[in-house]
Amino acid sequence: MYLTCVDNMELSKYICHRKPERSFFIKDHQFPVCARCTGFYTGLATYLILNNFYTHSYDLNMLLISMVLMIPVAIDGLTQYFGPRESTNNLRFVTGFIGGIGLIIFLKIIIRWILNVL
User: In this structure, are residues 7 and 17 in contact, taking their beta carbons and an 8 Å threshold?
Assistant: First the structure.
């Protein structure tokens, strides 16, 4: 059984707010997730693909770098939420992309640490 676009939009409500004014559209069809989440998932996927070709160590320096990479998305989201300014979809995507890379590095470090402890 194939999922339709309506089914995809229905399933995505559990992972994203999907507000139309904060989402991308292609030919009048809304993305199943908002611009920021699109950036997060694109950043995660890009990092995982590129990491197969270019590896690095997962040490304390990388943990700090991962945290720094998540700062722009936090600043963008918080300043938008508390009202000093309104973000744009392009800025949401870019900060989400950078934050997605930081998040996957952070998760890989934490998972490796947990596995080493066990």
Answer: no
Segment 71-108, tens digit of pLDDT: 999 999 899 888 878 888 899 899 999 999 999 999 99
From the CB of residue 48, how many other CB atoms can be counted at a distance below 10 Å?
12
Please calculate the CA angle 34-43-1 and round it to the nearest 5 degrees: 60
Tell me phi and psi for residue 26, to 5 degrees.
Answer: -125, 120
3-state helix, strand, coil in the chain (%, to 5): 65, 5, 30
Identify each DSSP E strand in the chain by its residue range.
25-26, 29-30
Torsion of CA 53, 44, 95, 37, to 10 degrees: 160
Q: Terminus-to-terminus CA distance in the chain, angstroms? A: 40
Q: What does pTM read for this prediction? A: 0.81
Nearest partner of 62 among 103, 95, 118, judged by Cα: 103
pLDDT tens per residue across span 42-52: 999 999 999 99
